């Protein structure tokens, strides 16, 4: 059974299990005037994600009750992107959200299509290039992206990992913080998606590609939106050389030629490992992958064995 950390209640005494979030789902849908009968649980991780049977709507229930400001911002971003006709996930019209049920934050999103089909890294490059040309309205009040603060908060919450592993990750973060402060970014500062990768670009039912997971939108050097695609190709082999070449061609910049690439890659990689450390109570697969990744960071070897999550 999947549960919250240590099986403890999270928001409002709700235990983050299939049974616990099902009650939250029903109450949230009743509040929004949606029919919950036949809803399908797609995944249970940092969010519980449901697909409704009655309408093409996805319901996301956040495990962390503190994400309310992020989800409020994500809904605002989605509505603005729709106004400027940018291809991204939409929120249903006429539903006031987010809603808080039993201490957990619930949001509603239009379903992109009935099955999950990823778009291509070339299309990701096209959308990022287009996104980076947009000037965000001040009404969005996007935060400045502080990777070290985000990483520090993530490491502080790694209660389920060994003290030895956590100390190692914290020492690595301290070293990278000093290197990060010395970086000379070359791309313009501005709006970023914040988690731009092949996993967050889906094929819409009408054929075009759309960006999803909008809660990471922030103001930062644009290099942050390119690092995962480069990293996935360069270190893990999750993209082919041809795919990465297409990404570079269509975006117009090769991050791997930038002198700060290795530092940014090391930092983004550490953030990925810390995130996975919060999932080790979710499944044995997560725990095994976390151990594999920490071993790679210690030895500098075996990154080609990492599995995508």
From TrEMBL:
Organism from which the protein derives: Streptomyces thermoviolaceus subsp. thermoviolaceus
TM annotation in the entry: none
SUPFAM superfamilies linked to this entry: Protein kinase-like (PK-like)
UniProt protein name: Aminoglycoside phosphotransferase family protein
InterPro entries attached to this UniProt entry: AGP_Transferase (IPR051678), Aminoglycoside_PTrfase (IPR002575), Kinase-like_dom_sf (IPR011009)
Location of the Aminoglycoside phosphotransferase domain: 49-262
């Amino acid at each position: 059974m999947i549960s919250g950390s240590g099986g403890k209640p999270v928001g409002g005494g709700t235990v983050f299990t299939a049974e616990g979030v099902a009650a939250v789902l029903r109450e949230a849908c009743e509040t929004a005037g949606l029919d919950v009968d036949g809803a399908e649980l797609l995944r249970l991780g940092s969010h519980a994600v449901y697909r409704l049977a009655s309408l093409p709507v996805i319901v996301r229930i956040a495990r962390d009750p503190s994400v309310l400001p992020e989800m409020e911002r994500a809904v605002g971003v989605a509505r603005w992107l729709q106004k400027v006709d940018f291809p991204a996930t939409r929120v249903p019209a006429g539903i006031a959200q987010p809603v808080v049920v039993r201490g957990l934050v619930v949001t509603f999103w239009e379903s992109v299509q009935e099955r999950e089909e990823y778009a291509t890294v070339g299309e990701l490059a096209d959308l990022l290039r287009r996104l980076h040309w947009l000037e965000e309205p001040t009404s969005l009040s996007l935060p400045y992206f502080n990777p070290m603060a985000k990483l520090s908060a993530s490491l502080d919450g790694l209660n389920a990992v060994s003290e030895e592993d956590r100390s190692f990750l914290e020492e690595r973060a301290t070293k990278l913080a000093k290197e990060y402060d010395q970086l000379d970014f070359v791309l313009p500062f501005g709006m970023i998606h914040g988690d731009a990768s092949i996993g967050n670009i889906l094929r819409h039912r009408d054929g075009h590609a759309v960006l999803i997971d909008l809660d990471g939108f922030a103001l930062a050097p644009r290099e942050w939106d390119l690092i995962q695609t480069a990293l996935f190709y360069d270190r893990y082999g999750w993209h082919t050389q041809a795919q990465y070449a297409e990404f570079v061609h269509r975006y117009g910049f090769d991050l791997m030629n930038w002198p700060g690439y290795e530092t940014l890659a090391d930092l983004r990689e550490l953030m990925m490992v810390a995130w996975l450390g919060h999932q080790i109570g979710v499944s044995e697969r997560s725990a095994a992958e976390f151990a594999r990744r920490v071993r790679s960071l210690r030895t500098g070897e075996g990154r080609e064995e990492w599995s995508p999550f």
